[in-house]
Design goal:
Elements lengths: L10 E5 L4 H12 L3 E6 L12 E5 L5 H15 L4 E4 L15 H11 L1 H17 L2 E6 L10 H21 L4 E8 L2 E2 L14 H17 L6 E2 H12 L10 E4 L6
Length: about 260
């Protein structure tokens, strides 16, 4: 359910907007009146219908791309009121001892650095404006199996959220996070890991699925729409007295 006009007059940047949760967030922001800057490293971002929007192809793992993204948003719309840091996600799922060094580094680059870089890039504009709302997408998988590097990265996202909330409250900037649980989504058009899955890897992933479902009081996966609803609440003025909070959206699993 959308709230007409909730983001009227606001400019929102959404990363990872080509598919999944990010796409739902971008489209709902537009439906609720925002001008949206959609960022993704996939050209599919140009296919998202988000009204008066700007689509930017950028790799959020790169510091320079994040700086360029915010410059493009300011160049087009002159302000940034909301940043949703959605980029991230498990690339591999397996016991920690099975990860190679390069895989550990790739997981951290994918799920920590986009939030670090984008927050660093957007803060000068928000400080100058004296206001802003940042919503980071974390995960309840900080307490889970077969995803330790990803969990470490999302734990870092939680720390970024807490630290920035303290540092920038005096500047009128709120920083919060949602921590999704298992979320059902359409098949990814651009997979995080394009390599064929082995039987062992499928078994390890099934362990994750079973633990995720068992940890939810509701015994089910959520939807991208349910995640988007929580993100938009934290981004909106309805949450004007909420900052430094990590909100689990996982059917009762607190992470």
């Amino acid at each position: 359910m959308s709230v007409p006009g909730r983001f009227a007059g606001k400019v929102a940047v959404v990363t990872g907007a080509a598919q999944g949760i990010g796409r739902d967030v971008a489209m709902r922001l537009a439906q609720e009146g925002a001008q949206v800057v959609l960022a993704d490293r996939s050209e599919h971002v140009h296919e998202v219908d988000a009204g008066d929007s700007l689509a930017v192809v950028a790799d959020m793992e790169r510091y320079a791309d994040c700086q360029s993204l915010m410059a493009a948003a300011l160049g087009r719309f002159g302000r940034i009121d909301v940043l949703v840091n959605n980029v991230g996600g498990t690339i591999w799922a397996k016991p920690y001892a099975e990860y190679a060094e390069a895989e550990i580094e790739a997981e951290v680059r994918r799920s920590l650095f986009p939030t670090l870089w984008c927050c660093h890039a957007v803060l000068p504009a928000m400080v100058a404006a004296g206001q802003g709302s940042i919503v980071n997408v974390s995960s309840v998988a900080t307490r889970g199996i077969n995803r330790v590097p990803y969990a470490a990265a999302k734990g870092g996202v939680n720390a970024i959220t807490a630290g920035l909330a303290w540092e920038y409250a005096a500047h009128g900037i709120r920083v919060n996070a949602v921590a999704p649980g298992g979320t059902a989504a359409p098949p990814r058009r651009v997979p995080r890991n394009a390599a064929p899955q082995t039987a062992q890897e499928a078994a390890w992933m099934q362990e994750v699925v079973e633990q995720t479902t068992a940890s939810s009081h509701m015994r089910r996966y959520g939807t991208t729409g349910e995640q988007a609803a929580a993100i938009l609440f934290l981004a909106s003025d309805e949450a004007s007295y909420v900052t430094g909070t990590v909100l689990p959206v996982a059917g009762g699993d607190q992470g």
